[in-house]
Design brief:
It contains 35 helices and 28 strands. By secondary structure, the protein is of the alpha+beta class.
């Protein structure tokens, strides 16, 4: 018999099937079952060791390129005759970058794999169980199927079990269902086809908490076979795939690696064939210099630091990012799948309508606040002076076991301990000026007939100051109305007619169709004390007073947030365990769907074929009454269609889908620890609007990453073009390896970091998200990088060749004169009387200063993809201004500070040198943004 069918059979069948009895299991049978089923605990089904996780940090293509750069730098220092004393410094700097990235990546990944540990912590430590006819308390891990367990208010359920006895028995199943209202438990069998957890009211589940009453249950599943265990399996099977940014950097690393290999082979082969050097070492050093120029050593560090700064900024927006790359992934999101309760709604049940005295009174104000008005047909009324309204609200106060108290956080007037439905009734009375303390002072409770799912009502029995007894009842309208013989109308009671009953039931239906949870309220004067306050005697000939319609209202800011989503090309989807009618009403009220919009339930999903389901996922924006596996199905179907999915969750049931999404988002206030561990982002205010704000920040961060990627790569391609061209001409390196490394790390690094925190481009949420699968290095960016790099190459090449010509007295070896050997470059004298070695050092210094100048001018053109520099506000980029000034100071120090000149092989430049450099670098300000052409094309088409 399948484990998920225990709910469909009566208790005797369950006990017979599990071969147990009211005396529990004998000890010898327990031993056999422990050997058969194993311990009642969660088991790790795989995973990656911390050591392997750390090693994997070094297998990223970009990191591999940096490791190659380390060996290249060491080679330049260790190979005899290489003349590169700065190689050790280069290798130390790059090694620091690699280790920093590896440690940071390991910590992030290790944290994200702790979901199973959080699940284990949620298991109940001990359980009361009947063994050998005696009650005993044991460690919960020793429970087996067939064990009879006892549960009472406050207990955590240790295993999945079939309820066989229930007395006012209810459980908080929010960890599994995400719904905050406690579920009343019954013993009767349930005849539903594949019910979700919330519908299995005769079952209790591991990890849930008993909130009221007491009961007994027979264990049906333990360990990994429980609903909790199934979720643990799904969490462990859900693998976190690479984010769009990681894919982009991986792709970039592979392309750069291929380019470097090709260029090194070409240069080395050309040098050997021409045989222009005295040794293979010099030829190898030329090829190595080219490799160093092609590697953007600072890129991984700049990406990591920019994302880290983005994380800090998101904290200010109530979003804590646990996995660094998820900052950027948020900006790529195309679909947001959100829970309803507490995320789209406030998770604060609120009375919206009171129907009494033949009129429906609207109640304004949401949540646990004093603010609110009572209006009838637009006219405000005072409930305290209205006999029917005040009696209705008093009944709600007296039929309650919930405590309303001042909110310790100060965010609301009250907080509650207990049932949200009862809390809503208490708050409504306080809004009306009818204070709970005064009501219970007047009517002292002496007994209670508790609510259960069979009776669907509760009654509080009280005595007033005069010694008169009263019964105050609340319950399901269709049940309570049958027990009423009179109606409270215009401040007094009269007989309840069939017409009255029909009108009340019609109003009840109208309120229910508006997705309101409806309760009926009634009372009865009791002439004298009734023995044991028998329900059959107390709950008859009641006086009907009114109906109360309540709901968990949407958050005020959600409607605007959904509008922003749609403007930004993001599709919001609501996935909830609540009922279909409620889901539709909430979704319509926040603008997610039209009034008759499509809502799909978990039961309907189960009846669909895979193709039908995939089609519905792309057209339906609201899913109701869903189980954990349905959420996972929805996420996987969306991702399989190349959507970038953000999934929110709070309960344990959400953890698999949260982990499987591109961006898993958990709730900081209501979220279970396991869901937080499985998530990438934690919302500290549990608010849907915060997700949209986080998406906006993600887009801004991605935009800034694009800014500095195109800046760094354009700068690197300038160096590649320069080194490759000059080497192929047969001239010595125009810039040394240590100068290139200084450019890539210090001179370029600070402006690149400043671009990472630059003020965002305007209108980021008025554009569609980038297409799923689209590369950062698209044709437009590649063209832009090549054009900018080529213009910088022209400037630096002009400076180098002109410097050689002018300083040598009109000679450029290899162009206007024969090539020189390596020995001649070091020892020969030029026509001007200068040694070629000094001329080369001066020319290299000019090139070094030229490259820096071009890049520090060009960086201002990288701030906006859509507008040229003269249409942007430079004054807003204060960090970039400071970074450029710092790079200028550092560059001047390498040129003019005496002790730094030998290290960087530079000499002091004069005004004529700087004039040449500035004239050749001015075009850096004139390069138009690469998307400006697309914008003009779009205007023409429109």
């Amino acid at each position: 018999m399948a484990n998920d069918s225990w709910y469909a059979n009566d208790t005797d069948f369950v006990k017979n099937k599990l071969e147990t009895s009211d005396a529990g299991l004998p000890s010898d049978e327990v031993t056999k079952r422990q050997e058969k089923y194993g311990l009642n605990e969660l088991v790790e089904t795989g995973g990656i060791s911390p050591l392997r996780m750390f090693i994997n940090q070094f297998l990223d293509p970009m990191v591999i390129i940096l490791i190659i750069a380390i060996f290249i730098s060491l080679a330049t220092a260790l190979i005899p005759g290489s003349h590169e004393e700065g190689g050790f410094i280069d290798s130390i700097v790059i090694t620091s970058i690699v280790i920093f990235n590896a440690i940071f990546g390991f910590v992030q990944e290790y944290k994200s794999e702790q979901a199973l540990e959080a699940l284990k912590e949620m298991a109940a430590p001990r359980a009361r169980v009947m063994r050998d006819g005696l009650w005993t308390e044991i460690e919960s891990k020793y429970l087996v199927p067939g064990d009879l367990i006892a549960l009472e208010s406050g207990d955590k359920v240790a295993a999945d079990a079939r309820v066989i006895s229930a007395m006012g028995f209810s459980a908080d199943e929010a960890p599994l269902t995400g719904e905050s209202i406690a579920v009343r438990k019954i013993t009767d069998s349930i005849h539903l086809t594949r019910p979700v957890i919330g519908d299995m009211k005769n079952m209790v589940f591991q990890g849930t908490i008993i909130t009221a009453g007491k009961g007994q249950a027979v264990v049906t599943s333990t360990g990994m076979q429980t609903e909790f265990g199934k979720i643990a399996t799904l969490v462990q099977e859900s693998e976190k795939e690479m984010t769009p940014l990681q894919i982009d950097l991986d792709d970039l690393g592979k392309k750069l690696g291929s380019l470097i290999i090709v260029l090194v082979i070409l240069v080395f082969a050309a040098e050997v064939l021409r045989n222009v050097s005295d040794s293979l070492i010099e030829e190898l050093m030329a090829a190595i210099a080219l490799a160093v120029s092609a590697i953007p050593e600072g890129l991984p560090a700049v990406v990591t630091i920019t994302l880290a700064i983005g994380v800090q900024r998101m904290v200010q927006e109530n979003a804590i990012v646990r996995r660094l790359p998820s900052v950027e992934t948020l900006g790529s999101t195309t679909v947001i799948c959100s829970d309803k309760t507490g995320t789209i709604t406030k998770n604060e049940m609120t009375v919206k309508v009171l129907y009494t005295d033949g009129k429906a009174v609207d109640v304004s104000g949401t949540g646990y606040t004093r603010k609110g008005k009572f209006t009838y047909q637009g006219i405000e009324i005072d409930p305290a002076t209205d006999a029917n309204l005040s009696r209705t609200l008093q009944i709600g106060q007296l039929c309650s076991n919930t405590i309303l108290q001042p909110d310790p956080t100060g965010k609301a007037d009250w907080s509650l301990v207990g049932d949200p439905t009862e809390g809503a009734l208490l708050v409504a009375a306080e809004k009306a000026g009818i204070h709970h303390s005064e009501t219970i002072q007047k009517y002292k409770e002496i007994s209670e007939i508790s609510f259960d799912s069979a009776r669907k009502r509760m009654t509080a029995i009280t005595i007033d100051d005069s010694g008169s007894y009263f019964g105050f009842s609340k319950g399901a309208p269709e049940i309570l109305l049958r027990l009423c013989s009179e109606i409270y109308y215009d401040g007094k009671s009269r007989p309840l007619t069939d017409q009255d009953r029909k009108r009340i039931l019609d109003v009840n239906a109208e309120l229910a169709e508006s997705a309101l949870r409806v309760l009926a309220l009634a009372y009865k004067p009791i002439a004298s004390e009734i023995p044991d306050w028998e329900p059959e005697q107390v709950e008859k000939n009641l006086i009907f007073v009114g109906l109360v319609g309540m709901m968990d209202p949407p958050r005020d800011e959600v409607k605007d947030a959904i509008k922003i989503c749609k403007t930004a090309g993001i599709r919001p989807i609501m996935i909830t365990g609540d009922h279909k009618l409620t889901a539709r009403a909430i979704a319509h009220s926040v603008g997610l769907i039209e009034r008759d919009g499509k809502v799909l339930t978990g039961a309907e999903i189960d009846q669909m074929t895979k193709s039908e389901f995939n089609e519905c996922v792309h057209s339906c924006n609201v899913f109701a009454r869903v189980a954990p596996e349905h959420k996972l199905q929805i996420v996987k179907a969306l991702r399989n269609s190349n959507q970038v999915v953000a999934m929110t969750g709070d309960g344990v049931n959400d953890a698999p889908a949260v982990k499987a999404a591109d961006v898993g988002i958990s709730m900081g206030i209501r979220g279970a620890d396991v869901t937080k561990e499985a998530s990438d982002v934690i919302l500290t205010d549990d608010n849907f609007a915060t997700i949209v704000t986080a998406v906006e920040k993600g887009r801004e961060i991605y935009s800034n990453i694009r800014k500095f990627v195109r800046f760094l790569l354009a700068a690197n391609f300038d160096e590649v073009f320069l080194v490759f061209t000059i080497i192929m001409i047969g001239l010595p390196l125009p810039i040394t390896a240590i100068q290139i490394l200084w450019l890539n790390l210090a001179t370029d690094g600070f402006p690149a970091l400043a671009l990472g925190v630059d003020p965002p481009e305007k209108g980021v949420m008025k554009r569609s998200p980038r297409k799923p699968g689209a590369k950062m290095m698209d044709k437009g960016m590649i063209s832009y990088i090549l054009i900018a790099g080529f213009m910088a190459f022209l400037a630096s090449t002009t400076v180098f060749l002109f410097s050689l010509w002018e300083l040598s007295g009109g000679v450029i070896p290899g162009i206007t004169a024969p090539l020189l050997t390596d020995l001649e470059w070091r020892t020969a004298i030029a026509p001007s009387g200068w040694t070629w070695d000094l001329i080369l050092t001066h020319a290299r210094t000019n090139v070094f200063a030229s490259v820096v100048t071009f890049e520090l001018l060009f960086v201002w053109n990288c701030r906006d993809e859509y507008n040229p520099i003269w249409r942007t506000s430079i004054r807003e980029s204060k960090t970039l201004i400071a970074a450029v000034l710092l790079s200028v100071i550092l560059t001047l120090a390498t040129i003019y500070v005496p002790f730094m000149q030998p290290l960087f092989e530079t000499v002091a430049l004069d005004l004529a040198d700087w004039a040449l450099i500035l004239i050749t670098c001015i075009p850096a300000l004139l390069i138009p943004p690469h998307k400006i052409f697309g914008r003009f094309r779009d205007r023409k088409e429109n």
